[in-house]
Every structure is written in C-alpha cells, then in structure tokens.
Specification:
two-stranded antiparallel sheet
Length: about 290
C-alpha cells in the first residue's frame, strides 16, 4: 500500500500535468479555429469556456467546452480530481479495492467532433487512479468518418500510429504492440462486427513498478497527441465537402454513439462514481443520423 503522503504528492503532480496539457491543447485548438479559412468556416473563431464543478461525494474538476466553434463542431477538454469510496459493484472490478474501497482518480479527457467530414474525430484521455494499488491508464484513438480514410494505410492513420508508437518506444519498445492491439479490441462494435475507427493505443492498470517512468510515459502520450492531431487536422482543414460527405459523417457518428452508450468503460465509470454528467456525455456528437 502506498504511503498517504506519497500518494498525495503523486496526485498533485499528475493533476498539475493534466492542467498544463489542457492549457496547451486549448491554445492549439483555438489557434486552429483562427486559422480555418473563412470560405469554408464562416463566422468568428470559437473559444473555450472553462467551468469548475464540484462532486458532492468528493473532489471535482473543470469542464472545458469550445463555444461557437466553426472548425470544431463540438469539442470538450475536461480535467477531474475525485475521491471517495467505490460501490461494492465497482470495487469488485478495481485492483486493490477489495481491501479498501477508497479511491482517488485524476485525469484529462478530450473529444473533438469536426465540422469538416474529412477531418477525423479524435479521442484522448490519460489518468492516474489509486486504491490500495495505483496505476496509469488512457490512450488516444482516431475516428475518421469517411470510408476512404478508414484503413491503416491512410496517411492520417500512418501518422497517428507512428506518433503513438514513438511515445511507447521512448520508454519500452515492448509496450506499443499490446497497447495497439488492446485499442483495436476495445474500440470495436461487436453488434456490427466493425471497429469504431482506425485505433491508436489503449492501456489500463499500467504499473511497471516505477512511478516516475510510468508518469513520464503518460506525459509523452499527451505530448504525442498534441503534436500529431493538429498536424492531421490542419492537413485536411482546406478540403471542401459535399452533402453526401456530411451524411456519411453523420451516419458514422451514430456508430460513435452506439459504442459510448453500450460499451465504453469510461462512460460507465463516470456515471457510477457520481461524475459530472455534462462532461461525461460531452463525448456524444452534436448531430448524428441512422440510415
């Protein structure tokens, strides 16, 4: 069991990093809003609005929503630091919670749904969670909405996977293959027998025995995302789209909704631990369609 003072120090450092990463992402995304060409994205650039919230059972966080986005149709970047006791149902699924249901959790969660159908949607989250044990989790995955982009040879997929692999390889070259495979397995819709997107990496209960190493790895995942996704988005920013492209995007977004409501463990964790409903469900696309 980790000493309380050490755990508090780890939580403080992890939360400070998540705050810093949030600020960097907000600045970069607002820059893309300003850069978006007016002929495709009329109107004033959007800005983020940061809103603190309190969790009655312990802790809270800060919701960050892009308001009035023209390039980002819907985007949320959220921070949380919560604590309390797991319900018996949740405790049974968490390492170390069988001894004591008390927990702390801090992390960053991001989802971006883009106005342009040719710019992939993206999701990223990293977190630090502690019971009588502690670990990091998270990852990032890319979700193109056009069929021609939904393959591993697409340049966006190649760039995204290369960035995630580099983040893993900097700490242990053995990590990338299983974390990529875990992402492919996790972000899959069994009822449709299809992946949600083109993948990325996904890791949970990551504890190599060296907290500093694992924290550095989690930081590098955030940095890799901040480097690669803006490059991908800017590369597609000036691509015009048709109504048919938009309809294909809306149908593909329906798959996103199906996954998040039926299978996503992060959604279930937030709902079952009394998280902020608005931030938990901010992953839902603003407009969807089912054929």
């Amino acid at each position: 069991m980790t000493d309380t003072a050490v755990l508090e120090a780890w939580n403080t450092r992890a939360r400070a990093w998540f705050d810093d990463l949030r600020d960097r992402i907000v600045a970069e995304f607002e820059a893309m809003e300003r850069e978006a060409p007016d002929d495709l994205y009329p109107g004033a650039p959007g800005r983020f609005e940061l809103t603190p919230w309190d969790r009655p059972a312990g802790g809270g966080g800060v919701m960050g929503f892009m308001k009035g986005g023209r390039f980002f149709e819907k985007c949320g970047v959220h921070i949380s630091l919560v604590h309390g006791k797991f319900s018996p149902e949740m405790a049974a699924t968490m390492p170390g919670a069988d001894k004591d249901p008390s927990f702390t959790a801090t992390g960053i969660s991001l989802i971006a749904h883009m106005r342009n159908p040719h710019v992939p949607a993206v999701h990223m989250n990293t977190r630090f969670l502690a019971t009588s044990q502690s670990w990091f989790g998270g990852g990032a995955d890319l979700t193109p909405t056009q069929d021609y982009q939904r393959n591993q040879e697409n340049p966006d997929a190649v760039a995204f996977h290369a960035a995630m692999k580099a983040a893993c390889d900097a700490h242990d070259p053995a990590w990338y293959a299983p974390y990529k495979a875990r992402c492919d397995e996790y972000f899959f819709l069994p009822h449709r027998n299809e992946p949600r997107g083109i993948g990325g990496i996904f890791y949970d209960h990551h504890n190599s025995g060296d907290w500093e190493r694992d924290f550095a790895f989690t930081q590098d995942v955030g940095r890799a995302f901040l480097d690669v996704y803006p490059r991908i988005a800017r590369g597609r920013m000036a691509t015009p789209w048709s109504e048919a492209d938009r309809q294909e995007q809306l149908v593909r977004r329906g798959r996103y909704v199906e996954f998040n409501l039926l299978y996503d463990r992060g959604t279930m964790f937030g709902l079952k631990t009394g998280g902020n409903i608005t931030s938990i469900l901010s992953s839902m696309p603003p407009m969807v369609s089912w054929p």
